[in-house]
Structures are given as structure tokens and as C-alpha cells.
Amino acid sequence: MSITRRQALGSAGAAIAAGGLAKPAIAVNEPIRVGYLPALTGPSSSTGIGINRGIQLAVQEINAAGGVNGRQIELITRDTQSDPTKAVNGAAELSHGQNVSVVFGPVNSGESLAVVPLLARTNTPQVHPCWVDTLTDPQKYPMCFRNAPTNQQIGGAANRYVVDVLKRKKVAVISDTTGYGTASVNAYVPMLQARGAEVVYQGNVDAANPDLKPELLRMQSAGAEAIMPWSVNAGFLSRIINTRGNMGWDVPIVGQTTLGSGQTKALLEKPEYWAKVYPNNFRNVCYGAGGKLPERTTAFVDRLKSTKIDMGDTLLWWIALGYDSPRMIVEAMKAVGTEPKEIVSYLNKLKEFPGVYGDITFGPDQHNGYPDEEVVMVEANSLKDGAFNLAPGYSS
Amino acid sequence: MVESIVSTGLAIGCIYALIGITYNVMFSASRVFSFTAGTLGMLGGVLGSLFIAHIGMPVAVGLLIVLIAGAAFGIITEIVAVRPVLKSLDQHLYVLSTLALALMAQQFTAIEWGTEARPFPRLVDIVRGGFDQQFWLPMLACVAVIVGLELLYRYSLIGRAFLAISEDNYAARALGLPERNLRMASFALAGMIGTLAGFAGGEMLLAFFGNAPILTFYGFVPVALGGMGNNRGAVVAGLLLGLFQQAANFLVGGIFASVAVFTVFIIVLLVRPEGLAGATLQRRV
């Protein structure tokens, strides 16, 4: 049987029409693509590895429970390898090539500084947990939200603990010479003074300086009653702790979360030197009176244990943060769908999303969602299963 | 205060002096300033921690493997970063080639070892305190290297061959000395001295990838002050640098200590460009 040109064109037209009609039916069931930019390898990957455990568990649970109105969540993961350049490449691919509905990450500030402006230009909703203050700005980046504290909140919590809880009025503030260290000292010293403390020593020291005794002697002779170091360098922080111990000087050390890290612990000359060291942490993932976690967190830890997720080599707040992030995004999608503007509009009105890591609230002019009062200080030497005891003086 | 200046200052000064000698040994054989010297020091600390603290090797075995690794890195430096640019020494391409290799090694260490400082094991099992091993071990290593080099250069045939090529490599080659092999041996020797510096100072500097640029810069100061190729000058200048730096830490503190060190360094070079112990080059006219 021969086919005429008219018949062939007619058949082709019918096939195209049929394909066109079938498309919406497929779209309804196809997975929702969520972009994810963790640092799973490279020098700054410890945070990303911890967060990833929570993310994977959350997505698994969401999909097992039916996904978003029948559609599964598909994580499109691009490992940034702790490299801002690769993070930018990954973000560009997610927003252009993969056409994701929303991006979570990057999880390190250095990478986010490069990625946030790019995703803002492509009008892609973004949620990230990075602390650098400038990484949210509802005017410049109206689709970018932070579900973690800012550096201001971190410093503010440490200052509150030193001045209001420990009642220390003469404070030494020291940092390394990195951008983070010097910016932290410059930001936190006026905050301390505004709370009525006297900053008797303020200095930036090369993190590789092998002997910090001269600096601590200077603090001691100035009458410092507390030391506040701001650095993410475990070597620098451990030298401060070791020098204090060797001098037999009994002042509290209050500051950045790295004070309580395993790397810092490994560099201590004596384990007892870790006493009276209070790093930042987050109330919901800390042991309170009687060594108990809050109820919501206990249930979460039980789920982690039942799914055999290891907590011993990471921090509970990283896993909790990872667990909360897709759940918060999915809550928005369940309510308003996957259109970027609708997601942003929903997040702009989000009130006390009940996370394990903390309750998140955003507003149209406030894209920093973490509550001040949940940033607390903990006892560095109390680490157990990724969580710490609240520092003395807090009510649990 | 004086006790701390002397013990810490001399210990860190010995590490600087050893890195200065590392520069000099490579320079004598090739007329090249290889900026891998500080990287060798960093590798001494990192590999020492890896072999002894992480893998659990005995100290002597760990030290031996560290020295072999240092020698291997020295030979690789000679083949990859020095030999290809020897023909155009006047263009100073070695600055780029050796710096590139040093940066590659540093980045590789950061990726594989991590960017956090890690502990270096106690090498001698004695109670911590007072004039601790973290102070006297670098001094012991420095003395051992000085004595070893003196014996090598004065009493061994290969040592005299090293001296011959450092004095006049054209004449040495004309006499039938295997210049290329001797140069490789010199780089291997420098590799061992550099890693020994980092190994002996490991407890003080920790096993940290970021030590590489610091040792590269501070290790170069004794060379510039002591005179290029002059090991005795490097030792004296290294010790003075360590003492002065530690005194500045006490007197001015913070980042101003580094400023003080480099201010003195620049002033000395302005007054004596050939270094404190260096000889002024005679120019033939």
C-alpha cells in the first residue's frame, strides 16, 4: 500500500498532537527536581558530609510517605569539592541545564559567596545554612533564605554568655589574621562594649605562630577574666587552650564552634585542658539537665539509630540541619506547588517551621530564619554522639 | 620571659636555619633557589605524623621513611622543576617552576591530609615540662646536620665533589665529575635536611599543610642574611632570626612581630646586600 504525502503529513500531525496532549499527564507524575550543592569532598567537606546524612534521610522519608502530592523528590546533587569555582559551575548547571525548582546549598560560606548572586540572577529559589552576614539580603537576593544563624547571632550568643551568664566584665578578644578572624573581632568588640564589657586585650595573631604565651601573658596582665578566640583554625585554638593550661590560668575560653571539634581535642597536650572551654552550639541539639535531649530531638536521634546513621564521627546539628532543609522546602511545595515565585511567597510568610535544629521563621524583609535564643554555648569536653551539654548557667 | 625567648627562639631559629641550609645545598649544586625548601619542611611534619601517629610505625622507622621521602621529593624537584630551566638561569624561570611544584605539593597535601593542623607524636617518651623535647629536638637536629655536613664536605670523596661543582661546575665537568648525578644527589641531600627540619620541629609547628609557605619565607631570610650558599651564615642568621622574632612576640606582639622581623630584614639587606656573612662579588671589567 502506498502512502501519499498528504497522508504522511496528516499522520505526523496526529502523532505530534497526541504527544502534545500526553505531556501534561507525564509532568504530573514526574519527580520534582531539587538542586543540592554540598561539599562532599575536599578540605572543607566535614560539614557537608554531616549535613548529607540528614538530607538523604529526609528525602527517603518524604518519598516513602508519598512525596509532594504524589510526586517524588529527586535530589540533583553536584559535589562542590569545597571549591567555589566548582560550586558556581554546579549552580549554573542546576539552574540552567537541570531546571531545578529550588536549590539547597552550598553549605560553606566561601562557596555561597560565589553562588548566591548567580542564583539570584537566574531567579532560582535558594536555601542555604551559611553564616556570613551578607549572604542574605531580601532586596538584592529576594529568593535566597538562610535556615541557620548569622555570624552576628553567633558572636552575640558568646557575648551574652560571657557578660550576662558568667558575669565577666574584662574580656580578651583574639583572632587569627584571616578575613573571618579579623572581621569577627571588628564586629564583636563593639557588641561586647555595648553590653557593658571592657575589652582589655584585642589582637590578631598569625595562626601559625607556634608560641602564644606572649599574647596570653599580655591578656593576663591586662586583667582579662575571659578569653574569646575567633578562628576556625584548630591549631591556633588548641595553642590558646594549651598555653592557658600550661600557665595554670583559670579563665573560661568562649567562642567559635571549632573550640569543641575533634581536631582541636586531638591537639591538646592534656585532656583536662579542655575544661572551661565553651564553644557555640544550638539549644535544640544539646543535652540539658539530666543529660537529655529535647523531646523532638530524642525522637530524631532514635530514627537515626534505627536507620544506622553514624553520629559518632560528626555533629548532631549538622545532621539535623540537613534533615530539616528538604522538609521545609517540601512543606512549601505541598502548600503552593513548585513555581519559584510561589515557593518564595510561601517562605516569606513561614512561621516557626518546627525543625530539629531549630524553629525557622522568615518574613518579607527578614530572610535569616534562625532564632537568637537558640544559639547557645556548650561544654567542649562533653561531646557524646555528636552533641554537647549546655554550658553552666543555662536553664534547659 | 627570657627563658621563653631563649628556648622557643632558639628552637624555631634552628628550624629556620635548617631550611636555610636546605636552600643552600640545592643552590650550591645548581645555582638555583628552589622554593620547595619550605614544602620539604611541611612534608617532614605531615609524613612524620602520618607514619608514626596514624600508621603506628616506630619512631626510627618513621624517621627513616620520612628522610627517604624527602630525598625522593628532592630528586623529583631536580628533574621536574630545575633541570629543564638550567639552560636559561639568567631568566630566573626556576622561581616559577619551583614555586609551582611547591604549590602543587602543598595543595595535594591539603586535599589528602586535610587543611586542619593535626598532632605530631611525642618522639621521646619522657614527661612534658620545662626545657621540653619540642625545644631541644630541633636544636639537636640542627647540630647533627651541621656536623654531618662538615664531615661530608671535609672527609668524603662525594662531599669534595659537591664542593667542586659548587665552586665551578664547568671545571668540575671538565675533570670528569658526573655533574648531573652530583646535582641529583645534592637535591636528595637537601630533601632529607628539609624534611628533618619539619620532623624535628613537628611538635612545635604541628602537622599542618599551611607551614609550607611560612617556612619558605622565614627559611629564606637566613639565606639572604647569611649570604647565599653560606651554611655557617645561615645557621647564625637563623638563630638570630628565631630569637629576634620571639623577642618581638613578647615586646610588640600580634601581627606587629612579623612586621618587626621584616623591617629588620629589609634594613640589613639595604646596608649589606650581600648578607651579613656573604662576600661581595668581584666583577671582571
Question: Would you kindly provide a written description of the structure presented here, covering whatever features stand out?
Answer:
The complex is a heterodimer of chains A (396) and B (285). Chain A has helices at residues 5-29, 45-64, 84-97, 109-121, 151-165, 179-194, 213-221, 234-247, 262-266, 295-306, 316-336, 340-347, and strands spanning 32-36, 73-77, 102-104, 126-128, 144-146, 170-176, 198-205, 226-230, 253-255, 277-282, 353-354, 359-360, 375-377. By secondary structure, chain A is of the alpha/beta class. Chain A folds into 2 domains: 29-150 and 297-373, Response regulator (Rossmann fold), CATH 3.40.50.2300; 152-283, Rossmann fold (3-Layer(aba) Sandwich). In chain A, helix 11 crosses helix 12 (340-347). The radius of gyration of chain A is 25 Å and the shape is globular. Chain B has 285 residues and is mainly α. Chain B has one domain. Helix content of chain B is 75%, strand content 0%. Chain B contains 12 helices and no strands. Chain B has helices at 2-30, 37-54, 59-82, 93-113, 133-155, 157-167, 169-174, 179-200, 202-205, 211-226, 231-251, 254-271. In chain B, helix 1 packs parallel to helix 5. The longest helix of chain B has 29 residues, at 2-30. The model of chain B has no long low-confidence stretch (mean pLDDT 89). Classes of the chains: A alpha/beta (396), B mainly alpha (285). Chain A binds chain B through residues 42-44, 177, 203-211, 213-215, 217-218, 233-235, 238, 263, 266-267, 269, and chain B through 1, 4, 8, 12, 110-111, 114-119, 128, 204-206, 208, 210-211, 214, 246, 249-250, 253-255, 257-258.
